[in-house]
Design goal:
Elements: E1 3-7, H1 8-13, H2 15-23, E2 27-32, E3 35-40, H3 43-58, E4 67-71, H4 80-93, E5 98-103, H5 108-112, E6 146-148, E7 151-154, H6 162-169, H7 176-186, E8 194-199, H8 205-212, E9 216-221, H9 225-228, H10 230-240, E10 248-254, H11 262-272, H12 289-298, H13 302-305, H14 310-326
Parallel strand pairs: 1-2, 4-8, 4-9, 5-7, 5-8, 9-10
Antiparallel strand pairs: 2-3, 6-7
Bound molecules: adenosine-5'-triphosphate and magnesium ion.
Keywords: Plasmid
InterPro entries: AAA_dom, DNA_Partitioning_ATPase, P-loop_NTPase
Pfam family, one: AAA_31
């Protein structure tokens, strides 16, 4: 769409109509005394500018090798998909090149970014998922990722349900995802700074293959239930290390925390004392139904659609602590 000139008097008269058009993608140049003095642009253009500017700055700095982070917990509903999505966009806002992999046939992450809204979207096809890499002994290349607001994403759909039957017959293929990601990154002119992998909660061979495709494991925990299956997850990590020897439990991510609730206080205490020998604890992400509800409704990450919300502030802080941790600092 062209940038349309608009006089301030017309803007004043038709503000709501103009904003509705901006929401549809129209850009306006606001003219005052026939000179363009400001622009009204859709939020997605604004984020693009923010990310591009931050990326130009970031490109001047020495870059770390690609950091592969898997977000996993053998308990359901701890915030894996939410944490993966929010960290990815938060990192992109800081100028990092980021990709997301949805490795859960439930596809909550894919859906939360609106990729399943259009029934004709390639996100519904098996060919768009990473499931394809398990189809042969030697993994075929990863499909091209889709793009949503500055982040690349390999979507999920229920075709991923077939991965477990393949791996149950032939566990040797559990290394295929890691190998295919290695090959994909090696072929990129400018590899990603971060690849974040969102996983399913069920402890199956596909989960092992997903964890083994990463080097760092992040464990979101939103309640005591989130730690009940920790031993199951740690056992799975030991198996995954046969494929990814350097895989480490990098950090716990306390999510949906209400510090006024006693058992949440107890949970944090437990993480910071009993479990601190296993991994550090990243800053707390609070429980915010309103903001996460808005993210679900608008199909946008909270850090983009509600940048001023307190929980978005928490997510930004968690992102920065994570980057410091990966660079060798402390959480
Ligand atoms: N900090 C938060 N504040 C409020 N709601 C949250 C927060 N984090 C996650 N949620 C909500 O909790 C629910 C579960 O989160 P999510 O889907 O990310 O969990 P999950 O671990 O990926 O679940 P599953 O095991 O089914 O894959 C979602 O409705 C999500 O919007
Ligand atoms: Mg999920």
């Amino acid at each position: 769409m062209d940038d349309r000139p608009l006089k301030t008097s017309a803007l004043r008269a038709d503000l709501f109509e103009t904003l509705a058009q901006v929401e549809q993608g129209q850009r306006f140049l606001i003219e005052r005394y026939q000179h363009p003095t400001a622009a009204l642009i859709p939020m997605r253009d604004y984020w693009f500018l923010q990310m591009t500017r931050a990326r130009a700055q970031r490109d001047k700095e020495p870059r770390m090798p690609t950091q592969r982070l898997v977000i996993a917990n053998a308990s359901g509903g701890e915030g894996k998909s939410t944490v993966a999505r929010e960290l990815a966009y938060s990192l992109a806002l800081d100028g990092y090149r980021v990709a997301l992999m949805d490795l859960d046939p439930q596809a909550s992450l894919t859906k939360s970014l609106g990729l399943h809204d259009d029934p004709a979207s390639p996100a519904h096809t098996e060919a768009a998922t990473v499931g394809t890499v398990f189809s042969r002994d030697t993994p075929p290349p990863l499909p091209a990722p889709m793009h949503v607001e500055g982040v690349d994403i390999w979507p999920a759909n229920d075709a991923l349900n077939s991965v477990d039957s393949i791996l149950n017959n032939d566990f040797a293929r559990a290394a295929n995802l890691r190998d295919a990601l290695d090959a994909y990154l090696a072929g990129m002119e400018r590899p990603y700074d971060f690849v974040l992998l969102d996983t399913k909660p069920q402890r199956t061979n596909f989960l092992t293959a997903s964890v083994a495709a990463a080097d760092h494991l992040l464990v979101p925990v939103s309640g005591v239930k989130g730690l009940e299956n920790l031993d199951v997850l740690l056992k799975l990590v030991r198996v995954a290390r046969t494929i990814a020897p350097d895989l480490s439990l990098r950090a716990f991510v306390p999510n949906r925390i209400r510090e006024d609730v006693n058992h949440h206080k107890g949970l944090l205490e437990h993480l910071r004392t009993e479990l601190s020998a296993l991994a550090p604890v990243l800053p707390v992400i609070r429980d915010s139904l309103a903001t996460m509800g808005a993210a679900t409704e608008t199909r946008q990450p909270a850090v983009l659609c509600k940048p001023g919300a307190k929980v978005s502030g928490d997510l930004r802080q968690t992102t920065h602590a994570l980057v410091a941790l990966l660079q060798g600092g402390r959480a």
